[in-house]
Amino acid sequence: MRGAPVRTIALTNQKGGVGKTTTAVNLAASLAYFGRRVLLVDCDAQSNATLSFGINSAKLDGTVYDLFTGEARAEEVIVRYSERIHVIPSTPDLAGGEAEKSPAASRGQALKQALSGLTGYDFVLVDCPPTLGLINVNVLVFVEEIIIPMQCQFFALQGISLLLKTIDLVQKRVNPRLKITGVLPCMFDGRTTLSKEVLEEIKRHFGGKVYRTRVRSNVRLAEAPSFGKPAIEYAPDCNGAQDYLSLAREVLGLPEDAKEPASAMPKQETA
Ligand SMILES: Nc1ncnc2c1ncn2[C@@H]1O[C@H](COP(=O)(O)OP(=O)(O)O)[C@@H](O)[C@H]1O
Ligand SMILES: [Mg+2]
Question: What is the pLDDT of residues 174-228, one digit of tens each?
């Protein structure tokens, strides 16, 4: 893995509450479990990814906001959650509209400028806000890959054409390498006809891009953030933790039964 180019992946969907943040946090933890070094960039003003790693925003030297305004370098705002999981946190001030006003951000180039030179990571994951504004455009200009988490509920595909149009525009105009790597069915409940029907609809729309992994509805995934840990540390055996390990295997191209020794568990460094 060392020496391989860093993979940059946005977790995005124009809807809120579909599993973007849960996927960003738990995919980061699962990739780290498989030995990869991960930087998670929280680009949502709601700071849910930041909080999910138990990061106290009152004690921060800087946040992703400072990357948008150009007031800090990435290295200055990185928080080390564990040896292999680092986080660039966000705070609610990202919502104020000021972050997008810097010359770089208004051209969509702020994150790319701030993060392109970073070394030492195998993956940079970016958690996105549920809007298709300038923050999201800055993310799409920076990353090469997109994973779209989708809630297996009615209206899952509503508004998706706007997201696809935005991706297409950024791809054509500024970032030709941008592509949708996969679509992830989230909050899947195999007992309900609705979940299965929505999954079929998602497959009709996205074909082979839909991951084999379905992230099942699992209360542990919803509880873990309040303990400031990803599910794999909070409740390693729960369905949610196992489903995100399965996603990580797909993302890494590992066989379905690939396991790492327990020593692969990331060690926590911050309280
Ligand atoms: N597979 C799941 N099972 C149960 N609850 C989930 C699952 N995925 C996400 N949640 C919960 O659903 C809510 C929305 O998920 P979240 O990841 O924050 O969505 P988004 O970032 O797209 O707004 C959160 O409370 C989260 O804990
Ligand atoms: Mg979120």
Answer: 999 999 999 999 999 999 999 999 999 999 999 999 999 999 999 999 999 999 9
Quick: pLDDT tens for 68-105.
999 999 999 999 999 999 999 999 989 888 888 999 99
Ligand 1: residue of 12, 14, 22, 151 to mutate (most ligand atoms within 8 A of CB) is: 22
Q: What gap in Å lies between CA 218 and CA 109, rounded to an integer? A: 37
Closest listed ligand to the CA of 230: 1
Ligand 1 residue neighbourhood (C-beta within 6 Å): 16-22, 48, 130, 186-187, 215, 217-218, 221-222, 240
Nearest CA to ligand 1 atom 10: 222
Spatial strand order of the sheet with 7-11 comes to: 79-80, 85-88, 38-42, 123-127, 7-11, 145-151, 179-186
Centre of ligand 2 to C-alpha 58, Å, is: 20
Q: Which atom of ligand 1 has the smallest separation from the CA of 16?
A: 23
Q: Which domains does the chain have, with CATH numbers?
A: 7-251 (3.40.50.300)
* Of 36, 15, 11, residue with least CA distance to 25: 11
